[in-house]
């Protein structure tokens, strides 16, 4: 047990999917896993462990924002020996060719700062995905014929930001989408020798103002989860 995760030693798998929303963790466990069992409920940040096609896998909510995700990523890797962490999240599209429901595989995640900036100090560290996971996710998305984009995303500290100039610069520099966790996930994973990837679904678009209905979200999230699980186990 850790301060934020109540699972006993051995109750969390080497591979952990990390949605921001703990209720998405429950839905993933109920929908995709066999023999899923709840292993965490501390602070309502639900976590489950089960199997997918015979592979042991956990799903642990991360909460919203890098400060929250950092706590769970650190404890999963350092205290539970997790070796593969895959974020499964929603994101806001930033480019005209990135449409609602599309999947975004974050090769890199830019940010103004992450909780790790206190360690990295003056260095503009470039958080990046594990190449093997990224390659396998892209191949699986291709095989499933899911419209998918691979490239840079922006991990924001705020959902309601008041910096239209910053969004404009992200768009101008080719950033595909915005979310709030991946940069810290990649940084913590790199620090501890773990593999990480963010597989995201475009739930709304910053330029057009479009947003998915909740029914559409569920259907689109299914593709993202299938891609994440396949990449995790190289299948
Ligand atoms: O859908 P999730 O995984 O929560 O991800 C996105 O949604 C939340 C904001 O609504 C932030 O956590 C952002 O990163
Ligand atoms: O952080 C996020 C997540 C989804 N959509 C956004 O616009 N921002």
UniProtKB/TrEMBL annotation:
<feature type="binding site" description="in other chain">
    <location>
        <begin position="179"/>
        <end position="181"/>
    </location>
    <ligand>
        <name>a purine D-ribonucleoside</name>
    </ligand>
</feature>
<comment type="subunit">
    <text>Homohexamer; trimer of homodimers.</text>
</comment>
<feature type="domain" description="Nucleoside phosphorylase">
    <location>
        <begin position="16"/>
        <end position="211"/>
    </location>
</feature>
<dbReference type="GO" id="GO:0004731">
    <property type="term" value="F:purine-nucleoside phosphorylase activity"/>
</dbReference>
<dbReference type="InterPro" id="IPR018016">
    <property type="entry name" value="Nucleoside_phosphorylase_CS"/>
</dbReference>
<feature type="binding site">
    <location>
        <position position="43"/>
    </location>
    <ligand>
        <name>phosphate</name>
    </ligand>
</feature>
<comment type="function">
    <text>Catalyzes the reversible phosphorolytic breakdown of the N-glycosidic bond in the beta-(deoxy)ribonucleoside molecules, with the formation of the corresponding free purine bases and pentose-1-phosphate.</text>
</comment>
<dbReference type="GO" id="GO:0006152">
    <property type="term" value="P:purine nucleoside catabolic process"/>
</dbReference>
<comment type="similarity">
    <text>Belongs to the PNP/UDP phosphorylase family.</text>
</comment>
<feature type="site" description="Important for catalytic activity">
    <location>
        <position position="217"/>
    </location>
</feature>
<dbReference type="InterPro" id="IPR035994">
    <property type="entry name" value="Nucleoside_phosphorylase_sf"/>
</dbReference>
<dbReference type="InterPro" id="IPR004402">
    <property type="entry name" value="DeoD-type"/>
</dbReference>
<feature type="binding site">
    <location>
        <position position="4"/>
    </location>
    <ligand>
        <name>a purine D-ribonucleoside</name>
    </ligand>
</feature>
<dbReference type="GO" id="GO:0005829">
    <property type="term" value="C:cytosol"/>
</dbReference>
<dbReference type="GO" id="GO:0004850">
    <property type="term" value="F:uridine phosphorylase activity"/>
</dbReference>
<keyword id="KW-0808">Transferase</keyword>
<feature type="binding site" description="in other chain">
    <location>
        <begin position="203"/>
        <end position="204"/>
    </location>
    <ligand>
        <name>a purine D-ribonucleoside</name>
    </ligand>
</feature>
<feature type="binding site" description="in other chain">
    <location>
        <position position="20"/>
    </location>
    <ligand>
        <name>phosphate</name>
    </ligand>
</feature>
<feature type="binding site" description="in other chain">
    <location>
        <position position="24"/>
    </location>
    <ligand>
        <name>phosphate</name>
    </ligand>
</feature>
<protein>
    <recommendedName>
        <fullName>Purine nucleoside phosphorylase DeoD-type</fullName>
        <ecNumber>2.4.2.1</ecNumber>
    </recommendedName>
</protein>
<keyword id="KW-0328">Glycosyltransferase</keyword>
<dbReference type="InterPro" id="IPR000845">
    <property type="entry name" value="Nucleoside_phosphorylase_d"/>
</dbReference>
<feature type="binding site" description="in other chain">
    <location>
        <begin position="87"/>
        <end position="90"/>
    </location>
    <ligand>
        <name>phosphate</name>
    </ligand>
</feature>
<dbReference type="Pfam" id="PF01048">
    <property type="entry name" value="PNP_UDP_1"/>
</dbReference>
<feature type="active site" description="Proton donor">
    <location>
        <position position="204"/>
    </location>
</feature>
């Amino acid at each position: 047990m850790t301060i934020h995760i109540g699972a006993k030693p051995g109750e969390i798998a080497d591979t952990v999917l990390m949605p921001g929303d703990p209720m998405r963790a429950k839905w993933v466990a109920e929908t995709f896993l066999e023999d899923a069992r709840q292993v965490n409920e501390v602070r309502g940040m639900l976590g489950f462990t089960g199997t997918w096609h015979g592979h042991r896998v956990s799903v642990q909510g991360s909460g919203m924002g890098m400060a929250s995700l950092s706590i769970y990523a650190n404890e999963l890797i350092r205290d539970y020996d997790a070796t593969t962490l895959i974020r499964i999240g929603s994101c806001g599209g930033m480019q005209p060719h990135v449409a609602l429901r599309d999947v975004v595989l974050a090769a890199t995640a830019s940010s103004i700062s992450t909780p790790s900036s206190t360690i990295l100090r003056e260095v503009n560290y470039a958080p990046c995905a594990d190449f093997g996971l990224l390659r396998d996710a892209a191949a699986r998305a291709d095989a499933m014929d899911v419209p998918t984009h691979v490239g840079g995303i922006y991990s924001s500290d705020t959902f309601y930001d008041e910096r239209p100039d910053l969004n404009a610069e992200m768009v101008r520099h080719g950033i595909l989408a915005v979310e709030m966790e991946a940069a810290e996930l990649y940084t913590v994973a790199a620090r501890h020798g773990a593999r990480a990837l963010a597989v995201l679904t475009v739930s709304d678009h910053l330029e057009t103002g479009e947003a998915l209905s909740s029914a559409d979200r569920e259907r689109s999230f299914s593709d993202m989860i299938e891609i994440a699980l396949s990449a995790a186990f190289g299948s």
